[in-house]
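User: Show me a protein chain along with its predicted structure.
Assistant: Here is one chain, sequence first, then structure tokens.
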Amino acid sequence: MLDCAIIGGGPAGLTAGLYATRGGLQNVTMFEMGMPGGQITQSSEIENYPGFFEHDKTGMDFMDTWQKQCFHFGLKHEMKKVERVAKKGEYFTIYLEGGEEVEAKTAIVCTGSTPKRAGFKGEDEFFGKGVSTCATCDGFFYKNKPVTVLGGGDTALEEAFYLSNICSDVYVVHRRDEFRAAPPTLDRVMRKKNIHLITNSVIEEAVGDAMGLTGVKIKNNDGTITHMENTGLFVFVGHNVNNNVLKDEKGEFICKMNDWGQVIVDLSMKTSVSGLFAAGDMRIEAPKQVVSAAGDGSIAALQVISYIQEQQ
């Protein structure tokens, strides 16, 4: 019987494991198919995590120390895929691939979310080399330079506004002539002089060389293609929440979710199911930042410790 099963090995999962084991729990296992670390391991440089400011260190280097620290205090790592989580009576059953089952007193799910790809040519080739899905993470690299933003919803325009305070010009490309963003957000963007809206258009191709992105090709509805030279392209076309482990055998969610498939939690990371917690990018209103996910993980672990103590 595990004290706590942690599903997901990104910053939220690792931090949850660290706080749970240092807090006195003896049987804590993190289930993560690959090496722990999460999406941040794909980053070539980290600048916005407090206390970490080494330009020659990658996201992989950054997370490597997290793993060593967490495992030092007794966190166990199982490279096994979790199919689903279910609460049976007082405890949870963790169903693993291949039919194996593990029982746990509590569960912390932090399987994250995955940014959707737009599907244009060169998107995968230059991802992390000029193509980004996080303005807060990468905007500073393009200080006083022009960038392009793809998308027409609230996130795209909010991130465009954020970038406009850093970059010289922000070109927002949207496939329709009207934006889906809330009117106040759109109004704020339209009043910003260095934000330029390019409607009825799509990104045809991201182009570049061995050093990274050098420009984008924008295709208009009339078929004409405009080549724009810049080194930053930010894609905001939504996220896929990795929430399948929270579905039962009938495909129904076992806890309350919002319309976008994000887990509804309170400030303590508690879900609607007693003993079940969610942390990181899969929860509602997640900032999708490493420092925030780590904070979520610590909160969830501390709540797990309190929960188990109350049950004894």
